[in-house]
Amino acid sequence: MAKKRQPPVEKASVQLLVNDVEITVPEGTTLLEAAKEAGTEVPHYCYHPELSSPAQCRLCLVEVEGAPKLVPSCTTTVAEGQVVKTDSESATKMRQGVLEFYLVNHPLDCPICDQSGECDLQDFVFSEGRKHGRSKAAKRVIGRDDFGGDILFYGDRCVMCTRCVRFMEEMEQKPILTVVERGNRAVIDTFFEQGLEEAEWAGNVVDICPVGALVSKDFLYKARAWDLEHTPSICPNCSMGCNIEIHTRDNLVQRFKPRKNIEVNGSWICDYGRGGYEWLNQGGRIEKPTMKDTHEPGNGTQEPFGWEDLLRGLGARLKESAESVDVIASPVSSNEDLGAVLGLLKALGGGKILYRCPTSAEEVKLPGKEGLRRTNQLAPNVDGLKILGAVNVGDGSGAGGLEDIGASNSTVLVLGDRLEDQKDGFAENAGLLVYLGSHASQALSQADYILPITTYVEQEGTFVSSGGRVQRFSKGLEGPHAARPAWSILNELTNIISGSSDGDNVEEAFQKLSRISDAFTGLSYEDIGPEGVQLDAVAKKD
């Protein structure tokens, strides 16, 4: 569970006028953030809410009544009774002039730039810039540089906001990037032979670059921003529970991007998590539910069946089975899947759940963000499994630990684990072997039942992070036509066996957890919201 947080110190409130809108904000708030409260977005480049503010881009200047000149809204804090104008004639004229200077050397790369469509320079010039530039001088040409790792630098496009430099210095605390030269010759560069391949969080400099100066090699020329669908989700590559957006196109994941959640990951994700999405695009999917034809000589072949007939037959076999039930679950299984497993085990008279999880020797911390790290548990729902009573087996690579089950005659249910370390014919002595999986498994090719399930990005659900926070993820892709969420299949089996009538939606599947685990008591699916809920906070509320 997460450490107890100290109650925040309440700040005094300040009243002021921003563009004739009266607002009340905490003392110490910057004018730029106060303007957001009044419904006004002040253009800016160098400012980022989680980095220091050098006030060097000069784009966020606003007029404050009584001040002798325009002030930078990113560093000027509010004062009682202030009257602020962000759209006065002097402020608008200043921004227009600053934008014109930015365009003096900026290339017309929009048709080929990866940032096109989500570029601040495009947006600001369109809304407030001059219709035509006046400069006729030749533009400065710098060219492209490889900064190492996944990062390319297009110096011609850089607006010298220095967000990237400050991120490496303040957040990752590896000052690999710097500004070299001065004046109109200034450029971002690395130190000699040192590059961003030495960093673990360098991908964030691409996210915070307001133009297309820093781009990802992995995403280069892959898709246009306006072609991408954005789905709120949770990173599946460790147990930290970082909030992400999954960007998809043509029913394929194109990239992971951080989604802001101050309580978990702020605005950042690690490079390991960012790059771990290709398995979601992998082929070899299980297309139809099948049952082994035991009437054929030898091992028999897998015959496709409709869901209704197959589940009724499987339910009858499970109900008649006298053997104990062993479940091997994947740590990418959602809480709803695991709750459905426990419901099925209860209907069958009990059983045990095992899981295997790859681990790393060390955690990878982001020094500038307290508590943020890539944990050494390289799966998203390890804590959910622990809370619901599952037992960890196997080694640090997520292999082994299944020798007893492989040799037993129990009923074996495998949920999501492809058993890639196991030989063909796993659990051949099992009284009944059922595989619920998204991808074909060689070790489980002779299972009695093979049931296609959706991956986590093809369904809704929840994970529990290593800090004890329950968080929701949403559906971003369409799975194979016959594939269903594991909780839906398992709840239907439970209904067949016990005669109960559990609903077939994610809200009711989550509610089942409240009846199974005290940790989830009093929590509904709607309560979780977009940023999640601490389980210990739920317990205190009750």
Overall radius of gyration? 28 Å
Ends distance? 17 Å
Unreliable residue stretches? 1-5
Tell me the name of the CATH class of the domain at 290-541.
Answer: Alpha Beta
Mean pLDDT: 93
Which word captures the global form? Answer: elongated
Strand proportion: 15-25%
Given helix and strand content, the structural type is alpha+beta
Structure description:
The protein is α+β, with helices and mostly antiparallel strands and 542 residues long. Among the domains are: 75 residues, Ubiquitin-like (UB roll) (Roll), CATH 3.10.20; 252 residues, Rossmann fold, CATH 3.40.50. It has an 8-stranded mixed β-sheet, with helices on one face. β18 and β19 form a beta hairpin. The N terminus is likely disordered.
Fill in the keyword field for this structure.
542 residues, alpha+beta, Ubiquitin-like (UB roll), Rossmann fold, 5-stranded mixed beta sheet, 23% helix, 20% strand, disordered N terminus
Q: Strands, helices and their partners?
A:
Blueprint: E1 13-18, E2 21-26, H1 31-37, E3 61-64, E4 71-72, E5 83-85, H2 89-104, H3 120-128, E6 144-148, E7 151-154, H4 163-171, E8 177-180, E9 187-190, H5 204-208, E10 214-216, E11 229-234, E12 243-249, E13 252-258, H6 271-275, E14 290-292, E15 302-304, H7 307-320, E16 325-329, H8 335-348, E17 352-355, E18 364-365, E19 373-374, H9 382-387, E20 391-392, H10 403-407, E21 411-415, E22 432-437, E23 449-452, E24 461-464, E25 469-473, H11 486-498, H12 506-516, H13 525-528, E26 533-534, H14 535-541
Parallel strand pairs: 1-5, 16-17, 16-21, 17-20, 21-22, 22-23
Antiparallel strand pairs: 1-2, 3-4, 3-5, 6-7, 7-10, 8-9, 11-12, 12-13, 14-15, 14-23, 18-19, 24-25, 25-26
Helix pairs in contact: 2-3, 7-11, 8-11, 8-12
